[in-house]
Design goal:
The protein has 97 residues and is an alpha+beta fold. A hairpin with a 5-residue loop joins strand 3 and strand 4. The strands form two sheets. A four-stranded antiparallel beta sheet has the order 1-6-2-5, with helices on one face. Strands 3-4 form a two-stranded antiparallel ribbon. It has a domain at 30-96: Alpha-Beta Plaits (2-Layer Sandwich), CATH 3.30.70. The model is unreliable at 1-27 (pLDDT under 50). 15% of the residues lie in helices and 27% in strands. It has two helices and six strands. It binds iron/sulfur cluster (SF4). Residues 38, 43-49, 64-65, 87, 89, 91-92 line the site of iron/sulfur cluster (SF4).
Length: 97
């Protein structure tokens, strides 16, 4: 069964979508085009995202969610959805290109 294409908020055109982006080396295979995004204008630093999806999001120096890599590995899709659905600020989006 196919995964739903979009969960959460739509991306903001041209705006920075996370406080830090960039893939780490040695990451597992990923689903092409599935990305996790954090809207820094909405994130207030509750920390649920990096508690629920520590392979995808980490805390920045102010406790806000920071995406570790923009592409979600296939074995992290459930964690990404859990993080997005549990963000109290609805700051997390999963977008399939
Ligand atoms: S759960 Fe939402 S509000 Fe909290 S740190 Fe993560 S993105 Fe920000």
């Amino acid at each position: 069964m196919a995964d739903p294409p979009v969960v959460g908020l739509p991306p903001v055109d041209g705006a920075p979508l996370s406080r830090r982006a960039g893939a780490k080396e040695g990451r597992p295979a990923s689903v092409p085009g599935m990305r996790i995004l954090i809207d820094p204008e909405r994130c207030t630093g509750h920390g649920r995202c990096y508690s629920l999806a520590p392979a995808l999001v980490e805390a920045d120096d102010q406790g806000h969610g920071s995406v570790i890599g923009s592409v979600v590995p296939d074995d992290q899709l459930a964690a990404a959805r859990t993080a997005a659905s549990n963000c109290p600020e609805q700051a997390i989006s999963l977008v399939e290109d």
